[in-house]
Amino acid sequence: MFAVCGKVRFLNVIATRGPRSIFPVVSFAIPGPQVSIHAIFEYIDATRSSTALRESLYVFPIVEGLHVVSLAFSVGLVMWFDLRLAGWILKDQPVSAVFRPLRPFMLTGFAITLVTGSLLFWSLAMRCYGSPFFWAKALMLVLAGVNIAVYHLTIERRQAEWNAARIPPRQARIAGLVALTLWVGIIAAGRMMAYFL
Amino acid sequence: MWDRLYPYFLWIEQTRLGHAIRESKWTFALAEVFHLLGITLFLGTILVLALRLFDLVLREKGVAETARELMPWSMSGLFLTLVTGTLLFTSEAVKCWGNVAFHYKALFLLLALPFQFTALRSVTRADRQGLPPIVRKLTALVAVLLWFGVAVFGRAIFFF
Known about the structure:
The complex is a heterodimer of chains A (197) and B (160). Chain A has 197 residues and is an all-alpha fold. Chain A has helices at 2-7, 37-46, 48-55, 59-85, 95-123, 125-129, 132-153, 159-162, 170-192, and strands at 13-14, 35-36. Chain A has nine helices and two strands, in the order αββαααααααα. A two-stranded parallel sheet of chain A has the order 1-2. The two termini of chain A are 25 Å apart.
């Protein structure tokens, strides 16, 4: 399994329908060895590190606890920036005055959330594979990333013009609201994974 | 003390509400979802308020003003968390009764709630009187520790 995984290029990965997955069959017509996402997840699930983490008495609860508590630092802090972008709160403060001081704390929070989340995924790869909520969460995480990238590459370039505006321009407001909605969805889907795996 | 409380916990769990939530997978899961969303919102506001009391964020804006603006968000978060938390508790009161993590969570909650509405509230309102920074910082620190204690022991209930 490992040898196959190591050899293939990323685009040769195909997604196949697993036993309990709603994930549709997607395949790329690219020549070369084919590896399914199912097989990759199975490989992760079978690693010794995955099993060790899954069955550990203390490490798993600590990782899971950190994942939840760090949410307050990541989403709990970035939400103020998103709300300011949406023009809902702290309107008398420039956008940068809300964002910049919070940044080190929220980035630390996101780092912890990301690392612990990856560890949780690593330990429960096959259970994630079969969960529609995992795929919904993954999709929303990608969309959140796209939203952030679009914001940074477009409207933020002209931030000097609207930094002090009580209501930021429409595109910035939309970016803030989209981010807020996605975070709510990501948290909800993450929590649901525990019940419908 | 916990022995004496057992009949009450048993009674809570046997109410129609407790029974209904316990029997419905979706209701319980959705209550958990909104519980977590409420926690994120509430702890987020507590953190921002604490950072403000430490003079690390929003330095241009007064403490009292900041607190007033955050208040509706933090109270909505707390309300959502308390309501969904009560529903979750009702559905498994007896399990909580015998759960060490729940005992600590209850203790932290019983300390955090009064602290929130006495010490933290008066410190955030006493902006103009110029409290010594050490008082503001200590209050913020205690509030954060108490509320994160509630969250951590809440998460731990599952593992005991």
